[in-house]
């Protein structure tokens, strides 16, 4: 309806501005991080302060990166990609983090290939965010199972973990900017995921059982 359309146009203007500002912040931020690291090696005292600065700069960096992904995907940047390859590269990227957290990543594909029109880098970011959340939900380690199912009109990718789960009253808050239950979370990951998948004409479903685990399912249309 009209209300929803106005809402989504507002979101896209805000998203583009946020992405533009984030882009401008990135260069000065990179030099602040670089020089802080350099000074820490050159100055023998105040290392605690340098460490705090670096942690906080890293936090700004994460927020900036999440916002940069908000730039609305341009229709002409959509290309044909095999989503299986996209997921495989994301799994490779996260392998080290998984091992360090005692997490086993497994993937199942019900087809040899799963092509769709997309902005591949944006979809990578979605799967990185979701799989990172799954890893972070299992402080003692466990399994993350990625399952891709391809049908005539679309592709569904579910990411299931054995983590802490999400209390029912928090489900409506998922994707709200800055909603986080983590000490060093940004609360921007899922918001970015929702926006990117919306921009691809898809949707995200999240189901969870506290103490048992969470399943996030990303539905994407094939557009052809
Ligand atoms: P962040 O990871 O920085 O906290 P996100 O937007 O990625 O921000 O996630 C928001 C919140 O949603 C998390 O802080 C957590 O409470 C909850 N959440 C997301 N994914 C999971 C998951 N797989 N298991 C448990 N909780 C989750
Ligand atoms: Mg996250």
Automatic annotation (TrEMBL):
Q: What is its EC number?
A: 2.7.13.3
Q: Which residues cross the membrane?
A: none
Enumerate the catalysed reactions.
Answer: ATP + protein L-histidine = ADP + protein N-phospho-L-histidine
Under which main EC class is this enzyme filed? transferase
Where is coiled-coil annotated? none
Keyword field = ATP-binding, Kinase, Nucleotide-binding, Phosphoprotein, Transferase, Two-component regulatory system
Span of domain Histidine kinase: 20-224
Q: What is the recorded name of this protein?
A: histidine kinase
**UniProt source species:** Paenibacillus glycinis
């Amino acid at each position: 309806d009209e209300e929803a359309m106005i809402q989504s146009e507002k979101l896209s203007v805000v998203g583009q501005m946020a992405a533009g500002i984030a882009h401008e912040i990135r260069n000065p931020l990179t030099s602040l991080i670089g020089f802080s690291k350099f000074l820490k090696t050159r100055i023998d005292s105040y290392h605690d302060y340098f460490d705090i600065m670096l942690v906080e700069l890293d936090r700004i960096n994460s927020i900036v990166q999440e916002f940069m992904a908000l730039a609305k995907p341009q229709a002409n940047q959509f290309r044909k990609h095999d989503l299986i390859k996209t997921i495989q590269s994301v799994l490779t990227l996260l392998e080290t983090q998984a091992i360090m957290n005692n997490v086993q990543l497994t993937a199942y594909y019900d087809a040899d290939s799963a092509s769709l029109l997309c902005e591949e880098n944006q979809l990578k970011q979605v799967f990185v965010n979701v799989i990172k959340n799954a890893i972070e939900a299992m402080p003692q380690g466990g399994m993350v199972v990625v399952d891709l199912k391809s049908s005539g009109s679309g592709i569904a990718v579910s990411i299931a973990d054995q983590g802490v789960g999400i209390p029912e009253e928090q489900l409506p808050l998922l994707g709200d900017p800055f909603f986080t239950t983590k000490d060093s979370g940004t609360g921007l990951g899922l918001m970015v995921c929702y926006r990117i998948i919306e921009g691809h004409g898809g949707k995200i479903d999240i189901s969870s059982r506290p103490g048992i685990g969470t399943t996030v399912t990303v539905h994407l249309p094939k557009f052809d």
